């Protein structure tokens, strides 16, 4: 049995290969039951979340991820996300590998946004605003830079020191990286605005988005959470990773729906349709696009299989 730690999991999931693997898995599909989503009480703090996500390809691989999200870890200088992924044979049930679930989640989440950006962001998108300074942020920036000609990155966080720390993590040749002190000004200039936060209130206003902008919403994974306002949903062409997930869990979709700002028909396509070419994605240079992801077990399975086969090939 293969056991991959954080560094080994990261090394086995290069951006180009991972984005391609996700695209192929969305195009082919797999069996993906509804995931378990539980609130876990943490005395004296915000509730944590326990996620259990199974998926399988009949006759090939079966996987399950258990992830915990503890918002209170921000005060302890600890990652909010911890987890493990178990990959087994779908022929025999034999356990094949255990991967670091936090690293797998961070990289596949960023890769899903990059896959969406490949269909939705302008081909000449060069300015990226990263809203958020958590574990996902550096991954998201690197992933976007693998599919679009990013030359300027601004990072905004509630704590500028954390934004500076995230900037120092990056190693992108030919890319200027800065800390954004004025969120509105940075958003108005950005070709891609990517948000990965645990915010319960809108951070990005729809009126800030310039023609041709792409808004990438990764955080706000509960109906009570959101990173953008109703105006953003009203102005944009909306796309999601999975319709069922976005319509039930993503506050950036659920809340405008409840307010009557948009309808379910406002969602143009999901990643299945984009990957299969049944929807063209962006259709005009000035179109404002919005992508909302809440995560899918399919993405974990694609990443785990890629990592396992990479290490098996070295054996």
Keywords:
NAD; NAD(P)-bd_dom_sf; ODC_N; 8-stranded parallel β-sheet; 2 domains; single chain; Ornithine cyclodeaminase; 24% strand; ornithine cyclodeaminase, domain 1; alpha/beta; 11 helices; 6-stranded mixed β-sheet; Rossmann fold; 315 residues
Strand order of the largest sheet: 9-8-7-10-11-14-12-13
Overall mean pLDDT stands at: 95
Largest β sheet strand count, sense and barrel closure = 8 strands, parallel
Q: Determine Rg (CA atoms, Å).
A: 18 Å
CATH class of the largest domain: Alpha Beta
Query: What is the molecular shape?
Result: globular
Helix content: 25-40%
**N-to-C SSE string, H for helix and E for strand:** EHHEEEEEHEHEHEHEEHEHHEHEH
Number of strands: 14
Instruction: Bin the strand percentage.
Output: 15-25%
- Which architecture of the largest domain does the CATH hierarchy give at level 2? 3-Layer(aba) Sandwich
Count of individual domains: 2
CATH-level-4 superfamily name of the largest domain = NAD(P)-binding Rossmann-like Domain
Please count the helical segments: 11
Remind me, CATH topology of the largest domain?
Answer: Rossmann fold
Please mark out the parts with pLDDT under 50 across 5 or more consecutive residues, or reply none.
none
Provide the structure class.
alpha/beta
Protein name: Ornithine cyclodeaminase
GO molecular function: ornithine cyclodeaminase activity; oxidoreductase activity
Family: Belongs to the ornithine cyclodeaminase/mu-crystallin family.
InterPro entries: NAD(P)-bd_dom_sf, ODC_Mu_crystall, ODC_N
């Amino acid at each position: 049995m293969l056991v991959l730690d954080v560094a080994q999991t990261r090394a086995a999931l290069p951006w180009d290969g991972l984005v391609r693997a996700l695209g192929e898995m969305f195009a082919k599909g797999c069996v993906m039951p509804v995931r378990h989503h539980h609130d876990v009480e943490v005395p004296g703090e915000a509730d944590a979340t326990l996620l259990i996500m199974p998926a399988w390809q009949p006759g090939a691989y079966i996987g399950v991820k258990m992830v915990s999200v503890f918002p209170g870890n921000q005060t302890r200088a600890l990652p909010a996300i911890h987890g493990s992924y178990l990959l087994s044979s779908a022929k025999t049930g034999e356990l094949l590998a255990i991967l670091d679930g936090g690293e797998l989640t961070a990289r596949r989440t960023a890769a899903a946004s990059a896959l969406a950006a490949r269909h939705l962001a302008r081909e000449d998108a060069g300015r990226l605003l990263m809203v958020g300074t958590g574990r996902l942020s550096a991954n998201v920036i690197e992933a976007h830079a693998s599919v679009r000609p990013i030359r300027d990155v601004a990072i905004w966080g509630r704590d500028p020191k954390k934004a500076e720390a995230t900037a120092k993590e990056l190693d992108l040749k030919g890319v200027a990286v800065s800390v954004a002190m004025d969120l509105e000004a940075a958003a108005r200039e950005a070709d891609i605005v990517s948000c990965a936060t645990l915010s319960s209130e809108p951070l990005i206003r729809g009126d800030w988005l310039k023609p041709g902008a792409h808004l990438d919403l990764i955080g706000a994974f509960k109906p009570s959470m959101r990173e953008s306002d109703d105006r953003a949903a009203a102005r944009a062409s909306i796309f999601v990773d999975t319709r069922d997930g976005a319509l039930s869990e993503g506050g950036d979709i659920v809340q405008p729906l409840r307010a009557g700002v948009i309808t379910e028909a406002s969602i143009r396509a999901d990643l299945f349709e984009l990957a299969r070419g049944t929807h063209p994605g962006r259709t005009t240079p000035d179109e404002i696009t919005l992508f909302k992801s809440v995560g899918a077990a399919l993405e974990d399975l694609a990443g785990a299989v890629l990592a396992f086969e990479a290490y098996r090939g070295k054996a």
